[in-house]
What we know:
By secondary structure, the protein is of the alpha+beta class. It folds into 2 domains: 2-198, Probable tRNA modification gtpase trme, domain 1 (Gyrase A, domain 2, 2-Layer Sandwich), CATH 3.30.1360.120; 216-344, Elongation Factor Tu (Ef-tu), domain 3 (Beta Barrel), CATH 2.40.30.
Amino acid sequence: MNQITSTWPDFSQQQAFETLPATVDAGASFVAPLTDLGLIALTGEEAASFLHTQLTNDVQNLAVGQARLAGYCSPKGRLLATFLMWKSNDTIFLQLPRSLQAAIQKRLQMFVMRAKAKLTDVSDAQIVLGLAGNAAGAALAPWFPTLPNAPYAKIDNDYGTLIRVADANSTPRYQWITSTGHAITAWPQLSASLQPVAASAWRLSEIQAGIPQITLPTQEQFVPQMINFEVIGGVNFKKGCYPGQEIVARSQYLGKLKRRAVLASVAATGIAAGTEVFSSADPDQPCGMIVNAEADSADSSSCLLEIKLAALENNGTVHIGSVNGAQLHFHTLPYSIIDVTDAELPA
């Protein structure tokens, strides 16, 4: 396998990696070319101030040594996209699915107006590798002898940018954003010490980490809190206005939230984001929706789904597609859900 993978010449060709395994061996550390992700670069002296008025998180105070999650909402407070965001030198980067990149970039461009900010699609100019597991740090050592020491810490050097993202299965995960030349040079060594897998294995690790990703089928379906986005650091309630900010704030402070994202497994594959789920206690109307799903074996999948909390609290079962569909089995998230208290209300 490693002899084959080391001969692939073009990291911009997603189809070159479709023959890689879609799942990871139990306990294995892995490396995956994340060719399904797009990247928008923003430059200009007003790039940060412009983005600060558009996204759910603080861009003005984004340090070069950190990355952040951020959302982009409609005026109704529904998420159009979720990003991994970071700054390197004078450029701010927004990472999102390639399937959304062109439309989201066009929408952001509409609001630039006279701001001194330029948006550029750099998806094909940067290679993104996802590395996960206990062996990932040692595999990265030839290029990054010092690793980011906590989730969302970032290091830049001559080989590119290394971001530690949220842990999955109690093991670290990293994204290495680099040039095509460095990726081609590093790939044989990385794929010799780590299991080479397809991008779907990385997406599975995102689900296991409880990190949601908005895709085409789920655009404008959720306010950020419905998919735990404020819990994982994707919303700053102290920053200024952005599209949908009033609705997002109202959802946070006016009463207990009634819908959340949860982890589940199901004995089925091929589950699409946007698929509705149904409770046997109330079979005539959906109680939630699949946010992300990936196969974790030949006949089962892991899912991150948004659901009415009441559906989890009753004695019914929850099923994919209809009450007659495959039953979902729920698991503990890797983080705690803490709703706002009166003491946390803004002054």
